Amino acid sequence: MKSLSAFVFLLIAHAALSTPIEDEFELTRAQERALYPRYVQFGEATADLEAPVDYQLVEEVARNPRNTAYWLYTRRNANRYQTLTNGDERSVRNSNFDASKETVVVAHGWLSNGNTEPNPAVRKAYLNKKDVNVIVVDWRRLAMSDYATAAAGVPAVGQGVGQFINWLHNSFGLRYENVHIVGFSLGAHIAGNAGRATRGRVARVTGLDPAGPMWNYNRNRLQPTDGVYVEAIHTDGGYTVGGLGIGSAIAQVDFFPNGGISQPGCLTNMCNHNRAWELFAATVTHNHLQGNRCSNSLQVSWNNCRGTRLMMGNSDLRKTGSKGSYRLDTGRRYPY
């Protein structure tokens, strides 16, 4: 009886010491365990989905959003970024930021930083196409940690990005209807959380193969209400789970190039996964890939979708389309 009382006391003590972030993430991780093996390969890197999470780091990022850097590129400084600091008006006034122009915010994925893809490809495609502000989100402080810690910190990073956009709106007159947030892999869920922090007022949110491991049951994942128009491009999802991306529809409009599982010319999951940002960058330049709306997931797999047509990706800030899933086929080489 004494041992039982001690056990109950320990449970209560642990619950009292646990943070909301920890409670929520560990519950999600428990739900996800049946969907993936413990170890998932992201190219040459291995994600241990059962690794202990560094909640001290996660909460530090949550408390201090300045752990995330914002790099501004414009046509006047297309190759050398200017750092914008949330709350520091001088950093914006001394930069080339123009609140009257469209603003594209780009978030990278795990084990990446502001210099790695998809940031250069998307930045160059946009600046060659339109005179816009491109703000690259460098969240390497968390992204370079193990996958479980990075995933646990995604909501805090995304909320910080959203607060940064809100600050640009309140302090400099940036209009939400001029903002497009783009994110790849874990960055797709950052994009969703950022849009949510603006109360879904940004014009577009685009998730590029939103990360799958730890996200199928995660309520902090990309959602249809995160922006006025929310789109996801799935390239390594598996029929239900098993790929590096989520295989099911999670946005207002979900595109499944080549069925959303494997891509022409790819032999690995990482190649399939990366194809999402490669396709998106190509559509910003060429706006040439068009999908047909599907009635169900079987039509996506069997490639017999005959519904309304909609362009995938592109740079149209006012883009709209019938909600649902779309299938299209692409080539194996740029521009696909």
TrEMBL record:
Residues 316-336 are annotated as: Disordered. InterPro entries: AB_hydrolase_fold, Lipase, Lipase_N, TAG_lipase. Keywords: Secreted, Signal. Residues 1-18 form the signal peptide. SUPFAM superfamilies: alpha/beta-Hydrolases. Belongs to the AB hydrolase superfamily. Lipase family. This is Lipase domain-containing protein. The lineage of its organism: Eukaryota, Metazoa, Ecdysozoa, Arthropoda, Hexapoda.
